[in-house]
TrEMBL record:
It comes from the Eukaryota. Residues 140-517 form the SAM-dependent MTase RsmB/NOP-type domain. Residues 367-385 have a biased composition (Basic and acidic residues). This is S-adenosyl-L-methionine-dependent methyltransferase. GO terms for cellular component: nucleolus. Residues 586-596, 606-615 have a biased composition (Acidic residues). Belongs to the class I-like SAM-binding methyltransferase superfamily. RsmB/NOP family. The lineage of its organism: Eukaryota, Fungi, Dikarya, Ascomycota, Pezizomycotina.
Amino acid sequence: MSLYYETADILMPAGPEAGTTTQRSSSGSLKSRIFTKKGLKSPAAQVFALATETCKWSEVLKEVIDNADLLRHERKLTPVLALLLVHDFLLSKGGITLPQSHGLRQAIERHKARLTSELTRARLRRKMASLDALRVQIKRDGDPEGRHPRWVRVNALKTDIEEQLESTFKDFERVLSIAAVTATGPSNKSIYLDDTVPGLVAVSPGIDLTKTKAYKAGQIILQDKASCFPAYLLDPHAEDGDVIDSCAAPGNKTTHLAAITHSHRPEESAPRQTIFAFERDERRAKTLEKMVKTAGSEGMTTIGLGQDFLEVDPQGPLYRNVGALLLDPSCSGSGIVGRDVTPELHLPGRPPPPGAKGAPKKKLKLPKPDGKDRKRKRDADDEAKPVLIDDDGNATVVSSEQDLQKRLQSLSSFQLTLLLHAMKFPSARKITYSTCSVHAEENEQVVVKALRSEVAREAGWRILPRAKQVRGMREWPVRGVLEASDGDQEVAEACVRAKQGDGRGVMGFFVAAFERDVVPPAPAEGESKLFASEDGPYLRDDEGMMVRDVTGMPVLKSTGRPVALPGAMHLNALEGQQGEGHEHDESSDDHDYEDESPSKASSDSEGSEGDEWGGIDDRKNEK
Ligand SMILES: C[S@@+](CC[C@H](N)C(=O)[O-])C[C@H]1O[C@@H](n2cnc3c(N)ncnc32)[C@H](O)[C@@H]1O
């Protein structure tokens, strides 16, 4: 089967029987339908490129084909085939990839003059000075990522906004809204300073920052705005002690946690917090390791390479001081921009049926490239079915609502198990739970089930109400779904959602936080009580301000004395506990980081950009 027939089949598996119409090109994401289709003879990447480009151009091409009256003159062409062939004829560098003598190619090339002049008319109707200008417009309008700003987190561990505005972004024009940063188009360079997440900026879509010095040096990290919510909402302070990122690769949130704890450190000499980052997939854990190194946070991060969080013992001495956990488990990935795009296809009008006025007298039989009747019963395996690809890269055929429900139930029960495990850490008093899913089953419903669980009730976990959240999250207007929160207004209000395509320039996302009051753990023998009670390890005055000595050092409650080189003490205390048979010891402090070139590290972290793990379906993994 030729590339054109195969692509037409993917776009319109049932055959375009309707007349002039605008329709979704079948169900399921185009990418998953193509890449999981068995028996494709043409390279899947080629079919995908032709299908997506034709969809983007279909509004213009429909006009060209209709006005050139192509389908009336060439009755062997179906509307979809006409779109695909005219696309390549007018817009592809190589033209139609069929031999010159091929009937399909001749059917188009016979109308060269008319088709070319109709394309010029279509362009002029859109007030575009050149075909290149039209290309830019089509790319921006047809590509969901083309309308999505590029979010950039300035890494506080290495630089700050001011420095970046004067260097990496010095040629960028400052704009004051998301609409302005996306409206300026890929040829312009504008920058918007986000007012929700500190240190976050958005630049115009299509700008490639991966070649910049700042990107290669880990000073800037490409991370979607919504993906910055969990670490920002968790807001780990010194008094929260150590932090766990339970499902960490590729490491966007781990490195964000590191930057936040660094910014919150009261003094250089304050106790160092450790971020334990677990990742059960070893390959992804390597990416995490590289990202942590590039971001400059390896000194404060202990990576559990290939470590399943569910096997981490909450009672283990290493985690005695863990006061905050970030849980961002695998999910359906349904909120990821560009993930499940079903492109719109504008079909040209079909000619009137034979016998009708203006129709040719003789009915022409459609030639079939394989010589077989296309009405043959399709092989069930040959049929492209919608597939759900989660952010672990697992593909599940979801040909019915029931299949989808089954998959969501299985994901949400796994997510709940992880969340309940996080709730078992004895010193924990803050947890964030997040997904890049749009489904309530993985979001509000997991939160509600967790709150009702015995684990949460016994340990005293509550939802962190909106009023107690960090400013940017408290003020974020998109909240949880009331119905999905079982009608609980406080829970719905406490949940934070991000919605793709609502003008805020974010992907689909969900995050909620839990809090509780904890009784501080009894210090181990010989261990100073660096992390502790409700308001932290430092002595505070009646107004809640830290008490400091004359040199400005915070005073510890446990000793009544100012902090003295506690970083080293703290780490030594933890190191001393390693090798006690704890599952984490192999990946602790002495990482033997392989020497990597920044570009290698960059491409790995870029591979994860979009900013959740994209698995095998991730657009960047194709590069
Ligand atoms: C959504 S991704 C995490 C993205 C990451 N938080 C970031 O922002 O870069 C989920 C990750 O969790 C890992 N994972 C899933 N279950 C896990 C478990 N039980 N223990 C540790 N890691 C797990 C998956 O392999 C995957 O890499």
